[in-house]
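Box S2. Input/output pair 1.
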Amino acid sequence: MPQPDYAVVVPTVGRPTLERALRPLLAADPVDAPTEIVVVDDRLEPGPLPLPESPLLRLLRSGGNGPAMARELGWRATGTEWVAFLDDDVEPPADWPARLRADLAGLPGDVAGSQGRIEVPVPEGHRPTDAERATLALRDARWITADMAYRRAALEEVGGFDPRFTRAYREDTDLALRVMDAGYRLVRGDRVCAHPLRSGGRWASLAAQRGNADDVLMRRLHGPRWRDRVGERPGRFRWHVATTATLAGAVAAAATGRRRLAAALGAVWLARTAEFTWRRVSPGPRDAAEITDMAVTSALIPPLACWQRLRGELRAARLLAGESRIRAVLFDRDGTLVEDVPYNGDPEKVRPVPAARAALRLARNAGLRVGVVSNQSGIARGLLTREQVDAVNARVDELLGPFDVWRVCPHGDGDGCRCRKPAPGMIEDAAAALGLRPRDCAVVGDIGADVAAAAAAGARGVLVPTAATLDTERHAAPETATDLVDAVQLLIDAGASNRAEGRVWFPFRG
């Protein structure tokens, strides 16, 4: 039986534990090793990220847009049958690559994903604190991308990760539910991955209330019973609403001079808060510090949860019922606007593709700004000078311009810059130069790196295939068009439709 090929994608925020996550992958026997390992640096301002030298390893940047976007950029940059996702703080054992291959081998076509078992060590010398119990819950969580492998075809079919989940919370659950909605099964493998026990800090439970906003989006996308499908018990939000309402009533009664009512409601609030505190204290170490922290946070959590829920409702309404925001189209240069002449430094060789002028005229007449974002690795390779590239760009501008913005990446594939597509830097910079957000822009190109860069930036990506476009890139593209005119018309028509129907365009849905 042929062994399944797989790539590993590891989003990181620069944790020092990254090296431990990568070590067994790089040391694996070639028979079991991944085809490639893609590390996606998701820090807003990337700094040094020491990585071992390996031909398997590739570094991409995702610009601090969250783990969903980082994973999306990572898997779309690969071409394997399976993509395994690991977090940067897990500790796979030495046999993890071999056991992953064994888990994937022979899976029937209706199985789209395999989850590894997560082991979290129990604290020594004391019962787990409230924050530690939150980490221990990972042992029973379903379909979390701390260790989850997906079949590429399934990711392509459902459109990958949803970047509207901007935190490390619910983005993996959302993907799993969409995969199952598409008719696939998800299974648990036999491989094991260790996850360190995190204390989270004294106020971790307050920060965790931001999850209430993400839960709103889950309910809007998957219905009110989505928790049942992932084996999760209902949350305590209704309890928090009642507690917060009691506190608000007590404050209002006191402000209007109704002291008895204020005292009665205050007593109810105090009793509810005490019950909540004990519920959180009783399974833990019950030391003075933990009791104090639980008492303070138990008083703050109910109103904070309500605030985050309201915030989530407003955000979800905006995301799901807004207008199209496409105000600019950023075109790839070579193979898209002009014929692809490898490492061209001669302006006389510039030839626009047949549909370029008509497409640009259509875009400008529709009020769209237009720009160019182009990888020019010939500079880094010593095959071109920046002056030659600028001269060619000037010729393109003369024949097809004027363009509102130009961005060029002079780096090579291994330089680890934030601008080289499929990284989002050029799209982000071009949008900023136009006074827009990346989500206000669309990117039109002829290869997968173009639409992947759009996805990483939160822009809309449209692929216009040519002879250079790979079949895997065609299948993975969120949207395709037959030529440049068709691509621009697609953007104009979608904007009109969204305005008429009150929809917002979402970048990973074809």
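Box S3. Input/output pair 2.
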Amino acid sequence: MRPFRIYLLLLSAATLLAATTALPRAPLDETDLPALSAVLPHVAEIPQRARVLGYDRAEFGAGWAPSAGCTVREQMLLDAGADLLSCQVTTGTARDPYTGSVLDLAVDVEIDHILPLSAAWDLGAHRWTAAERVAFANDPRNLVVTSRGANQAKSDLLPAAWMPDDRRARCWYARRLAVVAATYSLPLPVTDKVSAQAACRMDEVTRVWLGWSVDF
């Protein structure tokens, strides 16, 4: 079989696989999510995460910020596919990007900070102003709707200690976290950068092979 024909067959198979296993669109338009190799060079590297005393969730604001008459939390659920009545979810389902399971958006869901607030605090947010911390805590680029169980299992961990159960989500998660770190000039420990690169190894190979853009 000619090489070009093999290439077409592989491309068709990859397209079919992507159509049947693609992750749901997160609040950030995933078509705008750059490749990890384009983002990670913009993220400073530190030897390890050092715990900084003084962290409290209230340092990042007293709950969710207002948004469109409700709060950022309700806006996230609405974007995920929920129906709302008086800022309360009535119905709606979505796919949990961390586990791949179906979420009932009216029950057992939480909004996760992809780059956890306490980790951000340790990595430099303790030096920010109160307004900067509130903006970070409510930035949709750093938020995702997930199950309570997945959110609690992730806790305040970074990629070296935690990855989504759904292997198809791991590069997506690494790319989202890297974008947030770069946007807010937060460094990442070397082990977490290595884990992020490992999660995207096949994705990066595919991008290079197909000539996809990796601009950031």
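Caption for Box S3: Residues 1-29 have pLDDT under 50 and may be disordered. The two ends are 38 Å apart (CA to CA).
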